[in-house]
Amino acid sequence: MAATTTGNRVAAPLTWRVGRLVERRVETPTAQTLVLEVPGWPGHLAGQHVDVRLTAPDGYQAARSYSLAGPAEGDQIALTVQRVADGEVSPYLIDVYAEGDPVEVRGPVGGWFIWRTEETAPVLLVGGGSGVVPLMAMIRARRAAGSRVPFRLIYSVRTPNDVIYADELRRRARDDQGLDVALVYTREAPEGWRGEPHRIGLADVNTHGWPSDLEPLCYVCGPTGFVETVADLLVGLGHQTRRVKTERFGPTG
Ligand SMILES: Cc1cc2nc3c(=O)[nH]c(=O)nc-3n(C[C@H](O)[C@H](O)[C@H](O)COP(=O)(O)OP(=O)(O)OC[C@H]3O[C@@H](n4cnc5c(N)ncnc54)[C@H](O)[C@@H]3O)c2cc1C
Q1: Are 125 and 210 in contact (CB under 8 A)?
Q2: Is the CB of 87 under 6 A from ligand 1?
Q3: Between 20 and 30 A from 54 (CA), which of 60, 132, 198, 213?
């Protein structure tokens, strides 16, 4: 996705805008990317998110946050939504929300969990499940800006079928110089993967992360328990707390 309106804006006036679905991409059996046309979109930084608000015919409203999945293309933004079983909003966005339908969008939101393309420190990204979405936005922004900053992504998923952006990650790990991608499987690993499925641990972070003396910027995103575990591991390995940025998506599930 090309960057045309990434800009440098962190704080935009938080007004609700009406967006419409222009494209839907299936990422995994439970996750889809929704491309929305949002007239007047002010631009955003990698790592920021939007609030999405739905209104039922009887006036009932529900709002949830979704990370921006990459740089904007003009007035178009991309969100990647993972279906949460029994959820109120995510199943609607995946199964019911149709092309041309309106949805209210507010943002961009967030001034801490962001990566700026002018940063020079090495970057460690650690994502669990849909927590990869804002991290992918950083990988895409890096590419769009022609940045050579070394990036490492550790991405924890349940099974090979759950890898969001699987093809693009494979391609970028091959073509984007200085980007390394390591997958950790918690339930079922593909043939040829070293080791048994496991939850991310010290060995993964040690092997696929950066030594703390390089003072990398670390971004950790996913379910609450995942984020807390990884942040504790990083701090235990000597990374400075202020360089370990976290974003929690919800319960551990
Ligand atoms: C800053 C931010 C950015 C986010 N970005 C994304 C994103 O890019 N993609 C994305 O898919 N989601 C993202 N989320 C999560 C999203 O906001 C919703 O929480 C999620 O879609 C579930 O909403 P729901 O209405 O379907 O479920 P709800 O009706 O809110 O919840 C249904 C049940 O599922 C549990 N639950 C809620 N959220 C989760 C979760 N994340 N994991 C497991 N169980 C859960 C609830 O406790 C409840 O039991 C983000 C959250 C935050 C705070």
Answers
A1: no
A2: yes
A3: 132
State if pTM tops 0.70: yes
Enter the DSSP assignment of 83: P
Burial 119-151 (b: 16+ CB within 10 A, else e): eeebbbbbbbbbbbbbbbbbbbbbbbbebebbb
User: Which atom of ligand 1 is found nearest the CA of 133?
Assistant: 8
The residue whose CA is least distant from atom 6 of ligand 1 is 66
Supply 213's token pair.
């003396």
5: DSSP letter:
S
Q: What is the pLDDT of residue 11?
A: 54
Q: Are 36 and 22 in contact (CB under 8 A)?
A: yes
Q: If you measure from the C-alpha of residue 90 to the centroid of ligand 1, how many angstroms do you get, rounded to a whole number?
A: 7
Residues in the chain: 253
